[in-house]
Amino acid sequence: MIQRKLTLVMENKPGALARVVGLFHQRGYNIDSLHVDPIEDFEPFRFIEDELGIKFQVGEVSRLTIRTTVGDKLMRQILRQINKLIEVIAVSDDESTYLKGVLRNENLL
Amino acid sequence: MKIAGNDILIQSLINEGVEYIFGYPGGAALHIYDSIFNQKEMQHILVRHEQGATHAADGYARATGKPGVVLVTSGPGATNAITGIATAFMDSIPMVVISGQVQSHLIGTDAFQETDMIGVSRPIVKHSFTVDKQENIAQIVKEAFHIATSGRQGPVVIDVPKDLTNPDELFDFNYPDKVNIRSYNPPVKPENHQVSRAVDAILTAERPVIYAGGGTISSNASDELRELNELIDFPVTNTLMGLGVYPGTGKRFLGMLGMHGTYQANMAMHNADLIIAVGARFDDRITNTPEKFAPKAKVIHFDVDHSSVSKIIEADIAVFGQVKDSLKAINNYLRSRKDEINREKLSPWHQQIKEWKEKHGLNHELYKSDSDEHPILPQAAVQHIYQESEGKAFVTSDVGQHQMFAAQYYHFDEPRKWINSGGLGTMGFGLPSAMGVKLAYPEEEVICITGEGSIQMCIQELSTCSQYKLPIKIFNINNLALGMVKQWQDMNYDGRHSSISYEDSLPDFVGLAESYGHVGIKITKNSELKEGIAKALAIKDKLVFVDIYVDPNEHVYPMLVAPNGSLKDMWLGKGEKT
After folding, report:
1. Exposed, middle or buried: residue B466 (CB in 10 Å: 0-12, 13-18, 19+)?
2. Mean pLDDT of chain A
3. For chain A, which residues make up each domain, given as ranges?
4. Rounded Cα gap, residues B170 and B284, in angstroms
């Protein structure tokens, strides 16, 4: 088991963060650290806008960084469970990214 | 036209085609109830407890495929609905639950009947919304129905603060005809390379099994599954949630698999070289010890939910998308490679399955003995119900031994006819869910097979059945104890029967049913069984409660040996193991 970093881009809506944090407890995963702030510089995330055909407005989306210590199989399960949350737009670990339902084999975030 | 928040909410539901809303009024929901009073398109069904409302909506959804709709008030109304929401969540049933909430300015003050419904329900909903302003109500309802009914279906909660349904504040109302949630995009169609890999595996298999679950029913993919089976002639097993998706009397049907699955179904899974999982999630009641599950099998997994695949059992080939679309794609591709389908190759496997069936198959003719020398067997009671209803009824059940006997001995030939709480295992589900089914299909026979333990968990709904004249047939498989718990205590706790009997405190169920204006029938002897069941089914305009006293010492078999067992390790009878 090693510590891994997860990065999420999600809608900045009331209760959205609680869904992510709640999911970790509900599924028996542990959070080592968590950081969240609204995205102000959209430049690194333009590919999401292009992919989904949308335009982010300031204050609309947040970036979450979560560190957790788990094995490979559980990591994949965590990614998939997070990807299922309705307000999550993209989530990645070191090796892969779910961009709203579609899996890419690289860390795009 | 300008209308108030309460009317926007109700008109939105009408726009969604809602015909029944199951609920219970209270302070925070009063404006909404006033709006219900002023319309005719949708009927409100007043239950006796909010758990009943959620199960009734759930039964309606399972039988029709349309979302069930529930309305409850804040606080206790909301928390009483929780068990039913969790039940729907575990079985992926589309449901929209509207909960009243205290006024916006009171939220967080521990106001009268205030509960954080969004917080309380968070782990057991697919999604939830808090209404923030009246202008957003229509959009939220549209999104809630879309989320509940697409992808892997599930319950959605809409929490509505009372002030936002105030009849004195008016707003424009336009119900959106389209919905696009940029952060929600469930897969629909499978990818070609997944389909071709799956077909390659299908064409080379020698000991294959199709293992189909509730997702096949949710996706309305029964026809496609049967078509696949016609093409390749593979044996089929169904999960508890999948019964009916392939005909229970079908030529290649193995019966249910898992904890109380048939000997041949569990043996076939254990010895298979290819398992085709269709809308099934390898629940622990199916796999037994995952490390020992089907050691020689390659697994193809069809599912709409990424997170279900390789969660418990690693899939060799994953086909993501609505099961219906995936099966269509598979069938089309298989047809194009028809020459490669070799049915001959499967005959040793079919022969092997036939031998297993002959060796330890269930005895489906127990009902033929009407001797009063022995007590009524619960299995025989279910077999009689099956015979007398010609296998065509909608059957709801509760949870326990009677549920397993119903699953084993009532053979469902069509999907959506078998309505039970599979994932959560909710006692009390049977009667209220039967109400939802009966409202959806008033002309069809709706039977609730229950036990004297389960029925008492939502027995108050007998009153609702009386009010709305719902002639459900309730068959109470009465063994005077919590049978499944007793069975486990017999098998694992040296027969120490801790807290499983009610001693002499069971009600007179016949008298109880009659007190609500229903008909009650009591059956205590084998010789009365056939006639009593037929008599109940012949009464078309009244609810009939049939209290059937069965052998209190009967166990459900087969039963998987746990812990540390595989699918080939089964108890086949008392003290008899494979």
Report:
1. middle
2. 91
3. 2-104
4. 52
Token pair for A24: 């970790």
Distance from CA of A86 to the nearest CA of B (A): 5
Phi, psi at residue A33, to the nearest 5°?
-150, 160
Cross-chain residue pair B306–A100, CB shorter than 8 Å: no
For residues B555 and A39, give the distance between their C-alpha atoms in angstroms, rounded to a whole number. Answer: 60
Which residue in this structure is represented by tokens 């199916």?
B286
Q: Catalytic annotation on B269?
A: no
Backbone angles phi, psi at B178, to 5 degrees: -130, 155
Query: Which tokens hold the place of A6?
Result: 């997860």
B111: its two tokens? 């106001």
3-state helix, strand, coil in chain B (%, to 5): 40, 20, 40
Amino acid at the residue B2: K
Query: Strand locations in B169-235, DSSP E?
Result: 170-172, 208-212
Cα–Cα distance, B555 to B164 (Å, whole number): 54
SS3 B491: helix
What is the nearest CA distance from B516 to chain A, expressed in angstroms?
A: 42
ipTM (interface pTM): 0.95
Q: Which residue has the tokens 């009408």?
A: B14
- As a whole number of angstroms, the distance between CA B366 and CA B240 comes to 22
- Cβ-based neighbours of A44, under 8 Å, separated by 6 or more: A109
- Phi/psi of residue B317, nearest 5 degrees: -135, 125
Q: Compute the distance between CA of residue A36 and CA of residue A34 in angstroms, rounded to an integer.
A: 7
Which stretch of DSSP H or E encloses residue B473? strand B473-478
The answer to whether A101 contacts B183, with C-beta atoms less than 8 Å apart, is: no
Per-residue pLDDT of chain A (109 residues; tens, 9 = 90+): 889 999 999 999 989 999 999 999 988 888 999 999 999 999 999 999 998 888 999 999 999 999 999 888 888 899 999 999 999 999 999 889 988 767 888 888 8
Number of H helices, E strands in chain A: 3, 6
* This prediction's pTM: 0.97
- Tell me the residues of chain B between 158 and 197 that have a Cβ less than 8 Å away from chain A: 181-187
Q: Cβ of B488: how many Cβ atoms within 10 Å? A: 14
State which H helix or E strand residue B139 sits in.
helix B137-149
The rounded distance, in Å, linking the Cα atoms of B146 and B153 is: 9
Across the interface, which of B122, B185, B306 has its CB nearest the CB of A80? Answer: B306
pLDDT digits (tens, 9 = 90+) for A7-19: 999 999 989 999 9
With CA atoms as reference, report the closest residue to B364 among B291, B290, B255, B451.
B255
The H or E element containing residue B143 is helix B137-149
A102: β partners: A99
d(CA B338, CA B332): 10
Question: Which portions of chain B are predicted below pLDDT 70?
Answer: none
Instruction: Give exposure, A70-95, as e/b (b: 16+ Cβ within 10 Å).
Output: beeebbbbbbbbbbbbbbbbbbbbee
Which CATH topology does A2-104 take? Alpha-Beta Plaits (3.30.70)
